[in-house]
């Protein structure tokens, strides 16, 4: 498994398999959230709930498994650097918006399953859910920009 993750990627960029998989999975999660949005618009709230829960859980796995360590190694510790300044700021903007999407999105999911304290149980679903959706989608777009910077435009791409 580790060998596969570190082998060359399948998208024809400088990325390895792990990074290409992260990109494809992130886009898949965004499509899952968009399907869930559409289900809410159709009034199918029960399926909506499980579709959005699936998206949020996959997102948690992606962040912990494939995003935190590269952030620590190549941004915080600057392994193999220095690189162009865009490399650091695009990744940090992505991570910052992503942090809020992660916290807020998981809060919305936990509230949906009645797993937060009574006083945090909002009842006006729409504004909370639209905000969570907007944060997730913005983070995904910033993630695509991050991928592009790391593995297409930067002159010495990170190797891991
Ligand atoms: C898992 C727990 C969830 C439950 C129980 C749930 C339930 C609901 C309900 C009942 C509504 C209708 C609100 C209304 O019409 O006033 C709604 C709408 C919505 N939900 Fe969720 N939801 C959950 C998770 C999420 C997540 C994580 C997202 C974002 C990624 C999300 C995105 C949306 C959006 C965008 C709408 C608004 C649709 C519109 O504009 O009419 N939901 N949800």
Feature tags:
160 residues, binds protoporphyrin IX containing FE, single chain, 0% strand, mainly alpha
Helix content: over 70%
What is the residue-mean pLDDT, rounded to a whole number?
Answer: 97
Helix count from the secondary structure assignment:
5
* Topology pattern, helix = H, strand = E: HHHHH
Report strand %: under 5%
Ions, cofactors and other bound molecules: protoporphyrin IX containing FE
Report the strand count: 0
Q: In angstroms, what is the radius of gyration? A: 17 Å
Q: Structural class per helix/strand content? A: mainly alpha
Major sheet size, sense and barrel closure: none
- Low-pLDDT runs: none
Distance N terminus to C terminus? 14 Å
Overall outline: elongated
Number of domains: 1
Would you summarize the structure shown here?
The chain contains five helices and no strands. It is mainly alpha-helical and 160 residues long. The chain has one domain (15-153).
